[in-house]
């Protein structure tokens, strides 16, 4: 990295808020799915193929510019798309708009996970 002239410290500092927001998003999503999985046992079986679909529907292993124009709106429905784009934008320069958008996505995931957990946790002992 130093031979390429990339300032690793600057990139690491820029990526720190996005990494924290990824953690909050993952925490909220895991609380949500774990709460639902108590009542619907097939959630754990569906999760593997769903994560594969989400991975391949986000431009991680291919550039977003190669996606056909008619499919771009569908890809933008995936909240992970914006998180991945924010990581790209943070490596170029500090982008506050990307951080705010990721903050909204992570907050929605965490609040919905906590809400579903509190609503469903009343009957956990009866089901388990």
Describe this entry's structure for a reader.
The chain is an all-alpha fold. 73% of the residues lie in helices and 0% in strands. The protein is built from six helices and no strands. It has helices at 8-39, 43-57, 72-75, 79-92, 96-120, 124-127. Helix 1 runs antiparallel to helix 4, helix 1 (8-39) packs parallel to helix 5 and helix 4 (79-92) runs antiparallel to helix 5. The model has no long low-confidence stretch (mean pLDDT 83).
Summarize the structure.
The chain is mostly helical. It has helices spanning 8-39, 43-57, 72-75, 79-92, 96-120, 124-127. It has six helices and no strands.
Strand fraction equals under 5%
Number of strands: 0
Kindly state the percentage of residues in helix. Answer: over 70%
Order of helices and strands: HHHHHH
Which descriptors would you attach to this protein?
mainly alpha
Task: Spell out the blueprint of helices and strands.
Layout: H1 8-39, H2 43-57, H3 72-75, H4 79-92, H5 96-120, H6 124-127
């Amino acid at each position: 990295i130093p031979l390429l002239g990339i300032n690793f410290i600057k990139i690491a500092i820029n990526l720190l808020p996005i990494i924290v927001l990824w953690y909050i998003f993952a925490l909220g999503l895991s609380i949500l799915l774990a709460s639902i999985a108590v009542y619907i046992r097939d959630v754990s079986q569906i999760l593997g193929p769903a994560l594969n679909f989400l991975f391949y529907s986000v431009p991680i292993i291919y550039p977003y510019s190669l996606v056909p124009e008619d499919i771009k709106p569908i890809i933008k429905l995936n909240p992970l798309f914006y998180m991945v784009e924010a990581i790209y934008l943070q490596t170029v320069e500090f982008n506050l708009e990307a951080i705010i958008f990721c903050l909204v996505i992570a907050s929605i995931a965490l609040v919905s996970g906590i809400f579903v957990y509190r609503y469903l946790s009343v009957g956990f002992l009866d089901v388990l």
